[in-house]
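tool_call predict_complex ligand=zinc ion
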Amino acid sequence: MKSQKSRSIKKISDPKWVADTVITLRAECVKQHDMSANYPEHDKLIAIQDQSQAIGEFLEWARIELGYSLGEYHEHTQDCFDIDGGRICGMRTEEMYAVNMPVTNLLAKFFNIDQDKLEEEKRAMLKALRNG
Ligand SMILES: [Zn+2]
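tool_result ok
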């Protein structure tokens, strides 16, 4: 049991919530093309990387070491009811349910980073680098 725990601790330091590749890619683009103004989402990402990493590690630590995960109270929506008004979601508003959102998405939300734009920028960067 103990060895499993130390293995999981090691695993915490593995995920980088701001991917190194993204930052390397961004730096390479600036070096080759000086396109510093063209990738605002990446610039945001780079600016918050240390904070994002710390929060990501904290959440992983709490999950792995303490077994804690984020929870939310269920709120019924239209989708929770069938056509006759019967409730079909099987959830209760006074109970807390685990949040299923991946940590990366939570961090992006918190730091106001648009992941679709980020992906677009990444593709543009790769294209720019390929075309020299
Ligand atoms: Zn419901």
